[in-house]
Amino acid sequence: MNTWYGISLSAEGCVQKIDFKGISNNLSAVLIQLNLSQLTILNLSNNQLTGSIPNFDKLPSLQSLNLGSNQLSGSIPNFDKLPNLQSLDLHSNQLTGSIPNFDKLPDLQSLNLDVNQLIGSIPNFDKLPDLQSLGFK
């Protein structure tokens, strides 16, 4: 797998990074739950992914999740099982519902939810002391 496009492995040979960013990939699929304990970066932005977003609770090492610019729908799941998440980008999808509380993501530094169909009030982000970037539109 170490020669596969967009896949990076750890020294132990475990998948550590998946980067299929870009329209040239033309990924057209429904997202599934992944079970990759050492995955730190998942970037599937700028593709044609559809369906709802899994909660990715089997990715405990995930630090960066970018699913921006796809065709994802449904509500934003609770990412409570991703305690190391630092960056979450879900911009330019068709997400609906309210904005969840991200209090259980203490390392979150960047959150982008621009260009969706979210409703309701913006939650209090007081328990996220490292949050530096916040995008809503």
General description of the model:
- With 137 residues, the protein is mostly beta strands.
- 0% of the residues lie in helices and 27% in strands.
- The chain is built from no helices and eleven strands.
- The strands form two sheets. The chain has a seven-stranded mixed beta sheet with strand order 1-2-3-5-7-9-11, with no helix packed on it. Strands 4-6-8-10 form a four-stranded parallel beta sheet, with no helix packed on it.
- The termini are far apart.
- The relative contact order is 0.15.
- The model has no long low-confidence stretch (mean pLDDT 94).
Topology summary:
Blueprint: E1 7-9, E2 15-19, E3 41-43, E4 50-51, E5 64-66, E6 71-74, E7 87-89, E8 94-98, E9 110-112, E10 117-119, E11 133-135
Parallel strand pairs: 2-3, 3-5, 4-6, 5-7, 6-8, 7-9, 8-10, 9-11
Antiparallel strand pairs: 1-2
Q: Mind telling me the C-alpha Rg?
A: 15 Å
Structural class category? mainly beta
Kindly report the oligomeric state of this protein: single chain
Mean pLDDT: 94
- The SSE string, one letter per element, is EEEEEEEEEEE
The major β-sheet equals: 7 strands, mixed
What is the compact description of this entry?
The chain is an all-beta fold and 137 residues long. It has strands at 7-9, 15-19, 41-43, 50-51, 64-66, 71-74, 87-89, 94-98, 110-112, 117-119, 133-135.
Key phrases:
137 residues; mainly beta; globular
